[in-house]
Amino acid sequence: MTAMTDVLTLSKLTAGYGPITVLDDLSLTLRAGEVVALLGANGSGKSTVLKTAMGLTHVRSGSIALGARDVTQLPAHGRAAAGLGYVPQTRNVFGDMSVADNLRMGAYLRPKTFEQEVEKVFALFPRLKERRRALAGNLSGGERRMLAIGSTLLLNPSVLLLDEPSSDLAPATVDLVFEAIADVHKRLSIPILLVEQNVTKALALASRVCVLVRGHEALDAPVGAVDTHDLHALFLDGGVRTS
Amino acid sequence: MLQVLFNSLVYASMIAVIAVGVALCYSILRFANFAHIQFAVVGGYLTYSFAAIPGLPLPAAVALSAVATGLIAILVDILVFSRLRDITPEGKMIVSWGVALFIRSVVAIIYGGGGRAFDISSEAVIVGDAVFTTLDALVVAVAAVLMLLLHLFLNRTRIGSGLRALASNADLAVTRGIPGERLIRLMWFLSGALAAIGGTLLAFETRLQPNMDLIILLPVFAAVTIGGLSNVFGAVLGALILSFAQNLLIYVDFGALVGGDSWQIPTQFRDYVAVLALVVVLLLRPRLSPLAGR
Ligand SMILES: Nc1ncnc2c1ncn2[C@@H]1O[C@H](COP(=O)(O)OP(=O)(O)OP(=O)(O)O)[C@@H](O)[C@H]1O
Ligand SMILES: [Mg+2]
To answer: Does A101 touch chain B (CB under 8 A)?
Structure first.
């Protein structure tokens, strides 16, 4: 692979929250057409990787590039404009705004085409159309997740950062959400950096897998090359690498 | 009783136009901005100065004052609060006291200690056993129109919705491409401009005086607290409730109620109703109060 196809490059990042450092010299690359599964134990810093890519943490050193463009100094709203779409793990809808208003905020940068584009989101998640007048805070967990993903798609992102899109959902909804993600990835060929607890689902979709241990990358390999046992060892023992 | 209603409505109008700015600021930056009160005072005095320009009609003077005060509010953000985005709400609140005192001193240096009155012609209108003036009607109408415009802006426009999104969840809002810092500046401008108009209306109804800030401080913050801060229009409701309670309390003849000689609560105690309301609300809903922090 050449550098030309790198769509998101995190280089030697040391980052965290205020005085707290969470990521330690982390490097990670997402290439065109890829789905990379980012795995790791609770608290290992997966969400922090995505937040840092989006510009929501304090970066002490290292750099972030979107394609060939260095965005390390760009504020989050500028990164959104540059094509980064982010679905946070928690607090990922505006709870006191309606579903329709949430979607409109997803299209904040592209208000003119909203009416056409929102129909595509409704086609992906018909439930949202029925609930468009409801307050986002009153949605079920599954509906809320659909809204979070749908709002982000309205940004027309060129790269997607998904933080545990299937956590705390009923099995049927998990399938629905993963089908939608697979559909978006195939149809629009958007590269995705996917944080997931559901390893089976994540590996089914991903082409490459990265494992994070205490803010540091412990494994980066094509999905075909990893043994599930190794993954579990990394998860449970936090850093024991056997292969 | 009709008189109580009229008086409450006029008073609530002036308080509400000032109080919504406190709620706007709190909803986005999460701190009780005491410097906001000074924007009302500055606005009142600026209107007075602009109105002195020969040939400039009074409405134009008010508009100029609103714009100028809005810009002053932006300046306060640039110089002070934008540098303190990450400190605690309590810290910002204390800093806002400092800013308030600073602005107060500047106003005192420029305008001195004496009171000034606007020369507004106004006629009395009698309805039943109650009286209101044409100025009263104007004050209520201006406040109602401003609140309606603010409501439409926040709910029907893209940028207004962006402000609501920012208040709802700032981190999520910026990931949607909403320019957070720019909208925060807009919020300061709107708050400052509205406060200027509120302060001007108050000066029309009473007069400009250096301690105006102390007169409106309690009612404004009590209104915002009663309203709950979660919603900008809670401040309007809070102002109405507060002002009705205040006016009712000084209207009722407590002496006659218990069958004795006529005795009413002296008018100067009116503001303590605001304190009472504030304390009651703080006790009942501590988490919603700006004074209780987050
Ligand atoms: N806003 C914050 N302020 C301070 N520390 C934080 C903040 N968010 C996360 N942390 C800390 O950073 C570390 C990594 O958290 P992060 O949320 O990135 O982990 P994660 O791998 O996503 O965990 P999970 O699987 O539970 O989602 C944790 O120790 C956490 O306590
Ligand atoms: Mg996480």
So the answer is: yes
Tens digits of residue pLDDT in A18-63:
889 999 999 999 999 999 999 998 899 999 999 999 999 999 999 9
For chain A, the domains span 6-92+157-237
Closest residue by CA, ligand 1 atom 24: A42
Asked whether A66 and A221 are in contact (CB, 8 A), the reply is no
pTM, 2 dp: 0.91
Answer whether B146's CB lies under 8 Å from B196's CB: no
User: Which pairing describes strands A20-31 and A35-40: parallel, antiparallel, or unpaired?
Assistant: unpaired
pLDDT over 90 (residue B199): yes
Protein residues near ligand 2, an ion, with CB under 5 A: A 46-47, 89
B window 38-77, beta carbon within 8 A of A: none
Structural class in CATH, domain A6-92+157-237: alpha beta
Q: Which two tokens stand for residue B180?
A: 């957070």
**What is d(CA B209, CA B194) in angstroms, rounded to the nearest whole number?**
19
Could you tell me which chain B residue has the CA closest to the CA of A148? Answer: B172
Our mutation pick for probing the ligand 1 site, out of A44, A166, A168, A212, counting the most ligand atoms within 8 A of Cβ, is A44
ipTM: 0.92
